[in-house]
Amino acid sequence: MIRRTFWSIVNHFIGFILYCFISAYLVWSLINIFLNIGTHIPLTVGGMILNTLALFVEVFGFVFALYFAMQLIDGVLKVGEISYEVEKITGKTKVSVIIPIHNVQASVLEETIKGFNLQTYSNFDLWVADDSPNEDLRLACEKVCEKYAVKYYFEENKRFKSGMLNIVIPKTEGSLVAFFDVDHIPTSEILEKFVAIMEQYPEYSFIQAKFGFRNVENRLHVWEAMGLMQAFCSENARRKIDTVLYNGTTAIFRRDDCFPIPEEKMTEDYDLSLNLIFKNKKGYFLDEIGSMSLVPDTMAHQISQSFRWFTGQSGAMFDYAGRLVKLVLQRKIKLRQAIDIAFSSFLVVGATSFYTLSVLYSIIYFAKIALVRAWSLGHIWLIIITLLTAIIYLATITATTIYSMNSASFPLKYWHIPFFLSFGSMISPFYIIPAFKGLIGQNKLIPGKTKWNKKIPIFRIASVFTVFGLFFLYLTVDSIFQQVCYYYTLGFCYYTDPYRNFFFLLFALVGFTLTFCLPFMAITKKYFKTKIYEDKHIYH
Predict the structure, then answer these.
(1) Residue 496: its pLDDT value, please?
(2) Is 264 strand, coil or helix?
(3) Measured in Å, how far apart are the chain's first and last C-alpha atoms?
(4) CATH code linked to domain 89-297
(5) Listed residue (22, 170, 169) closest to 97, CA to CA
(6) DSSP-derived secondary structure letter, 181
(7) Which residue in 126, 219, 234, 309 has a CA-CA distance of 20 to 30 Å to 171?
(8) Would you list the domain boundaries of the chain?
(9) Is there a cis peptide before residue 457, judged by omega within 30 degrees of 0?
């Protein structure tokens, strides 16, 4: 534990130095922009505005990348981990387990129920909460529940998953209430571990366990599984600052802390987590596999889920920003917690900020506006920032890989890493849409109108991205040409400002990732097919 604490301190010290560096870079650059220092081409008001906007996006992306890397490193170190003893449980604590289902295949439900029959803890009852409109699927699931003596409850419900849970929770009797998704087969000792921690640590309102993956069979599955490993790794770090988040499944709550669950939100789990933090209640992340889940079989299904998750997560700032500031000013929650909540909500916005930056750079480039930054090193600053950002991303990938391999949640190999990076770069443009939809408040689930997971027109969107990618590839070639013209002063080339000539670094990155969006989606559609779920039951 002492060794972990030492390396965590080192991690935060290095992060503090980098934060000081980027803060100095921001202030220094702002001074130069508004005083027109370091450029032979005076900036107009428009030039100052564009330089300032681009600068803030640069710093915004850098800060988010650094924060995430530090958090993942703390996650690998398992800061805030506690010990517990299952031998000391009383056996008197009643647990009510709820599995919400909607148009689910009976075979998937039966596998999960069998997992609960193997639990080492016996004082629990199992509820299946069904609001399926498909009568055939409903009857099949009911028969499975009868076969295993599971409590089956059906009621028509238009209020989505949280609405169904709010209907069933009051009908249960357990002092602890656990939630599992239908495709999450529990490990045999998970309820016993949950109860042990809840009995021995009364300060925790809930416990979130991580889950493994039982269908990792191809590159797409590896990418999806590693993405979730990143989320679990960051949860490890959140234990230290009491901002552990509920992930919607494989979790247990004290009865009074899980009801009512926020309704009509795309991420009811995230909203419930924030409501508990605002009440100074905290959760614990159990860095042990609590269930074995299924990752989506197709890219279309993954994007559909991600659209809902990221819209809801960024939309939390639309809903709670004012409340969050008020609680900090009233000292009802810690500033460190507020920063972490804001980071979590803006994570996807920060991760895709280089696309916004590329748009601003392209405007500056076409308008022939000098890019003014911290004076004395001139355009070298752009190279320094780019290299530091690359190092930070390398630290992020390294931490994710170490954590994934130590977790043994799925069979990860070193040669999977390039696939993880390439898949992530091709899919990241899609996340711009849900992130910004959430920021403008489009994170609501409207009964009778909104679908839980809806089909996304991925080929239409990918086609638009590819067109933009070709445009940025043109900018890449043109900016490299201007670079050559400047340094070799060829007779047919006009004089350009040297600040502009390093834009090709970002133009090339954005150009390649966007251009190959459409071919990438076509390839994934051909090679990754639905195997477990029937496609017609995925979207509802």
Answers:
(1) 44
(2) coil
(3) 46
(4) 3.90.550.10
(5) 169
(6) -
(7) 309
(8) 89-297
(9) no
